[in-house]
């Protein structure tokens, strides 16, 4: 164990005036309007007694890892679908997503010589913010689709009416996903001795996978070498910690999973390890910030190009008044065109005030566009450019970009343009499966991991000279 992971967590206390339901006094954006209040209450009563999905000690272990990432001793990899769907709760899709994340984390560990904090966007990523409450087609207006937690995408009154029972189903789907991921990892799926478990069947030949296979061989040699020298098996390589995250958007659900546990003070959101506040619900006086203020989880907030230094400092005061290590991460998502102008004043404001945060780059959500043939897409070049510039900006300011937040899948989709295979607008017609945001496919994801390694090593070199 490194000295920083032994550091005791700072004693803080439940903030004044906070309770798991104190958010109800404030304006809660992006909430469905349930037609049957009694049915909603019944469901929440049921959820309040169902078992949690994660434990407080896992949450505190993750907080320590985030604290280490803040000190430059780890790199955070967070990724998964834009939105999970109930029908995608299926073994092949779950294990393929895990395989991509494990492959990326191997590239990062090997290339950066740093342990990686692995966080999935899964086991609860079922609620989505929308630009409008209602959707009109022809002369019919219905509630917008808000994710499988709330309603269904089909444009019928039955499908679009928010149904609170879907929260119970979402809780069960999250538990099944967690159970499968935990079982795979405990059973040796993440064992560094067997990286061949992570091969994706459909990948035949890819320039990315050739590079990757060379890295696997190098890691395998290093593991065997260490075992020969020490005469023992390296047991801690048998498993990798995996944590979950989702946008904690649907506050009645999050409240019902907010619990006290024996021998710990305060309240934990036990629906996920690492909840985040989305860009559209990060208002200082909003219900989401109020809810997040009182839970003991490590938390993250999305930060777009419109956030001012003053707003960011006030957000920091509200969410981490004690400057507790590991507590707060900011996920910057400015867009390649704006990051150079908008990011530096934010980084500098936090530096001036000595605030401890982990900066994570989401190079996806500020770079979404529509193609002439009607697809929502993202250009790999813009994704790469925002990430690349973010590393440079932090380094130039004496700050550090400590993680990346990506929308990705282990399936062979064609949703983002460019990358090693130079996907074009015509390719999008071939395998575009996302119902929400476009995701990186396997090759594009590995390319990003390799790019991070090249970039970090290039930045580190002058300092070592
Ligand atoms: C998302 O992460 O899918 C999302 C909606 O992001 P943002 O809140 O940054 O727009
Ligand atoms: Co998204």
Main attributes?
binds phosphoenolpyruvate, 8-stranded parallel beta sheet, alpha/beta, disordered N terminus, 40% helix
How much is the average pLDDT? 92
User: Total strand count, please?
Assistant: 14
User: What's the arrangement of strands in the largest beta sheet?
Assistant: 5-2-1-14-11-10-9-8
Rounded to the nearest angstrom, the distance between the terminal CA atoms is 29 Å
Total count of helical runs of at least 4 residues: 14
Query: Strand pairing plus helix content: what structural class?
Result: alpha/beta
Bound molecules: phosphoenolpyruvate, cobalt (II) ion
- What would you call the shape? globular
Beta-strand percent range? 5-15%
Low-confidence stretches: 1-8
Gyration radius (Cα, Å) is: 22 Å
Q: Describe the sheet with the most strands.
A: 8 strands, parallel
- The helix content is 40-55%
Helix and strand succession?
Answer: HHHEHEEEHHHEHEEEHEHEHEEEHEHH
Tell me briefly what this model is.
The chain has 465 residues and is an alpha/beta fold.
